[in-house]
Amino acid sequence: MASITVADQAGACYGVERALELVARALDEADGPVRTLGPLIHNPKVVAELEGRGVAVAADTRQAPGSTIVIRSHGVAPEVIEGARARGLVVVDATCPYVKKVHHAAARLLAGGYQVIVVGEAGHPEVEGTIGHAPGAVAVESASDLDAIELGRRVGVVVQTTQSAERLREVVDALLARVEEVCVVNTICEATSQRQQSAGELAARSDVMVVVGGRNSGNTTRLAEICSRACPRTHHVEGPEELEAGWFEGARRIGLTAGASTPAAQISQVVDAIRALSPQAGEDGHAK
Q1: What is the mean pLDDT of residues 57-84?
Q2: Stated pTM of the model
Q3: Torsion angle, alpha carbons of 219, 222, 227, 228, to 10
Q4: CATH number of residue 90's parent domain
């Protein structure tokens, strides 16, 4: 009989749960409409559910006159919040506290005279928000991106919370060979590291691995990459409707993990769907 095992560290992190709670509270307390500035989290299903409850996504604070505006968990540049308040909007700051630590670290490095490098995905909202707190900072996704930057003598490094330690190490090693001084503030979220380690360990002993979460979620995508290296039969899905019965043929050990933007209910739906597609699968458990 096949078994279904959920990674011990999987699913919504503290920052995501906090953001969802803040939106729910805003819906109860706001006198007018509630909007999120950009998608609250990188999970299309959750964003759609919020829209069904009347919480629309505003691309700009100018699209939300008279609203309560919720700042997404990824954070924004300081002037965005200042501008929203200047327009008379009620601002609910749902920025993840761990992302705020990145903002503060980047600002301190800049004030200390360092050229600031952000290890992360260029254009990602969290990275853009961090750069907003350290004007002039540059994002790099890999060591090769450093070739396009005129580096100074002293470089300060922060990292997108959902990046891997391996990626950070690669960039820092390259910097150490090129500049006189490197000051590194490792701002990778512990929950991210735990999920990556737990997913890799489970994938290594699974015949099939399912990763649940938004395809626009950087941390979920990295979980899928980690799992794929250990288990070639890895599948990244956003919901149960994407599962295919053929994926589980001959599998005795089915593993499942989920990104930090994936609520527990969404994980349960996928587990139930796997069990329906693979009738021989036993009760799901959690990896130890």
Answers
A1: 91
A2: 0.85
A3: 150
A4: 3.40.50.11270
* Mean pLDDT value across residues 99-109: 98
- Contact at 8 Å (CB) between 162 and 75? no
Based on the domain organization, do 85 and 140 belong to the same domain?
A: no
pLDDT tens-place string over residues 231-240: 999 999 999 9
pLDDT digits (tens, 9 = 90+) for 250-267: 999 999 999 999 999 999
The token duo for 276 is 């329906």
Active site residues: 126
Q: Dump the DSSP string for 148-207.
A: GS---SEEEEEE-TTS-HHHHHHHHHHHHTT-SEEEE-----HHHHHHHHHHHHHHHT-S
Q: How many residues does the chain have?
A: 288
Domain boundary among 184, 213, 231: 184
In terms of residue numbers, what domain contains 239?
A: 2-12+191-286
